[in-house]
Amino acid sequence: MAKPKVLVTRTWPEAVEARLSRDYDVTLNADDTPMSADEIGAALGEYDAVCPTVSDKLPARCFEDGLRAKILGNFGVGVNHIDLEAARGAGLTVTNTPGVLTDCTADLALTLMLMLARRAGEGERELRAGNWTGWRPTHMIGRKLSGRVLGIVGMGRIGIATVRRAQAGFGMKVVYYNRSEPGADAMAGLDAQRLETVEAVMEAADVVSLHIPGGGANRHMIGADQLKLLGPDGLLVNTARGDVVDEAALVAALEAGEIGGAGLDVYEAEPQVPKALMTRQDVVLLPHLGSATRETREAMGHMVADNLDAFFAGRDVPNPVG
Fold first, then answer.
1. What is the spatial distance between Cα 205 and Cα 176, in angstroms, rounded to a whole number?
2. For residue 318, what are the contacts with CB-CB under 8 A and spacing of at least 6?
3. Against a cut of 0.85, is the pTM above it?
4. N or C terminus of the chain: which is more exposed, having fewer CB within 10 Å?
5. D-isomer specific 2-hydroxyacid dehydrogenase NAD-binding domain: which residues (predicted)?
6. Any idea which residues carry the catalytic annotation?
7. How far apart are CA 103 and CA 83, in angstroms?
C-alpha cells in the first residue's frame, strides 16, 4: 500500500524529518525557502497532507479547487494564518500543537520583561558599539520587577505559566483579563485578581503581558485607547500574535511618551518590522523565539506526526482545532 504523500512547508528539526521520511512519502523543504499562498494551494491538490507553520499564509483561495489533501498538520498553536472556515468547508481536518510550548513561551515573556525593566537590550547595544565609558552611579538606571503589578491578557496555559514564574521569582502582584474563569486546578496556588475588561488590566498594571490568539475579534485589541491607560512608566510585552497589537498605535504611544517601553517577539507582518520600532531604545525586539528550544520544537514536530499517524490510521486526531 502506498504511503500517504506529505508536504512539509519549512525545514523542521532533524529528528522529526527523519520520522516523517520513514513513515510517509514526504517532501521536505531542504533550503527552508518560504512558500507562497499559491504554492501551498497547489500543493493541496497534490498531497494527502500539508504541514504548514505559523508563518505560512493559507487564505480562502487555497481551498477553492479540487483538493487531494484531507488534513493540515499545523506546526504551532496559532491558526489565524489559516482560513479555518474555508479549510473545513473543503473537508480538511486541521490540527495544531498545544501545550508543548507553554513553558518556553512563558520563559520568553519573563525575558522580555527583564530586558525592558533593566534596559538590557539598550545596554548591550551601547557596549557592542564601543560607547560604554565605564561604571557610574547614574548610568542606564532601570527598574525592579519585584513587587510590581503584572497584568495578563489571556489566562490560558501560557498566561498561567507566566504568572507562576512572575510570582515565584519576583513576588509580582497579578491582575488579569480572561473571557471565562480559569479552572480552579489550573489556578491553584496563585494569587491573581480577575478584572472585567482589558482596559481595567491596562490601567491597574505596571507591566502587561499578552497571551491571546490572533485574528478575529482579537485583532488590534491593544490600540491607542488601551495603551494610554498603561501610562508613561508602563511596559507592554507581546509573545502571542503580532496582530493583537495595533503597531501604528504602539509607535505613536511610544513617540508621545504615553508608555514606557515594549518588548515584542511577534509582529503584524512578519518578518517585516516597522523601522519606527527598530530605531527606538525603549523597545526590545526578538525574532519570534517563543518556542525556540530544541526540546520544544522537536516536541511540536512529533505532535504533528502523531496527528498524521492517527488520521491516516482512521483514528480521532489528538489535537483537532475546534
1. 9
2. 95, 303, 306, 307, 310
3. yes
4. N
5. 110-290
6. 241, 270, 288
7. 28
